[in-house]
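Good morning,

Attaching, inline, the backbone tokens for the sequence recovery test we're adding to the shared suite. The designed sequence is right after.
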């Protein structure tokens, strides 16, 4: 589903991604872990071309994506992204936020978009909030609306960039439950997170990044209990 080969990205003199290789199969959940500044979020943003790679290749669903030859607006319809901050339209209700992109971008008939949005709001546990404006929601509720909004485009891959890091601790769980449900349903997901419990429970593959490189990747049980690299061991000992 997703294949990254020899990916490089710099910001000025700072070499942020260094020959990164990553493969994600359909219906697989891959969790990226590592210290702040290790390149995790930059990798995610490169996959959605919010940041432009300098070299290497990105292939999604069998198609190699090149900014000069690919219509990125069409491409992004297949790659949903949920950010740390919710980026909801404050002047639109929950329902209006969810239907905006399908109606405007994909030209889905409004009645159909509303019906599909209500199914998604039920899925994320917010069916009773469709007429509410974002300023009346908790952080966890806003993030679940953001997830529903991304799902409304029926993406093939979902990217999550530290989706719980801006939330109060008591609100983290409700968002992680929604993400675990998505994983159980077979959504292909790449998740940057500091929530190691989620990584252990939901991930098919955990990838540890340091200094712009993938140091180690493995199944959660293997990586968390018997990491092969000293750098991975040091990181896990510091956070667990």
């Amino acid at each position: 589903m997703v294949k990254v080969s020899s990916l490089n990205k710099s910001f000025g003199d700072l070499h942020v991604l260094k020959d990164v290789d990553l493969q994600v199969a359909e219906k697989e959940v891959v969790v990226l872990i590592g210290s702040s500044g290790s390149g995790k979020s930059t990798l995610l943003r490169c996959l959605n071309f919010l940041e432009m790679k300098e070299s290497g290749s990105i292939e999604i669903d069998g198609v190699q994506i090149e900014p000069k030859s690919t219509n990125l607006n069409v491409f992004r319809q297949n790659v949903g992204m949920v950010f740390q901050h919710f980026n909801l339209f404050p002047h639109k209700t929950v329902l209006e936020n969810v239907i905006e992109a399908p109606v405007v971008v994909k030209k889905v008939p409004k009645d159909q978009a509303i019906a599909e949005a209500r199914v998604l709001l039920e899925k994320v546990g917010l069916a009773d909030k469709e007429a509410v404006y974002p300023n009346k929601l908790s952080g966890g509720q806003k993030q679940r609306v953001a997830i529903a909004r991304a799902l409304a485009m029926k993406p093939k891959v979902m990217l999550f960039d530290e989706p719980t890091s801006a939330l109060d601790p008591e609100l983290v769980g409700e968002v992680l439950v929604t993400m675990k449900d998505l994983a159980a349903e077979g959504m292909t997901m790449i998740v940057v997170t500091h929530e190691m419990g989620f990584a252990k429970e939901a991930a098919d593959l955990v990838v540890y990044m340091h200094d712009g490189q993938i140091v180690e990747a493995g199944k959660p049980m293997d990586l968390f209990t018997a990491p092969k690299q000293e750098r991975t061991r040091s990181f896990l000992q510091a956070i667990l």
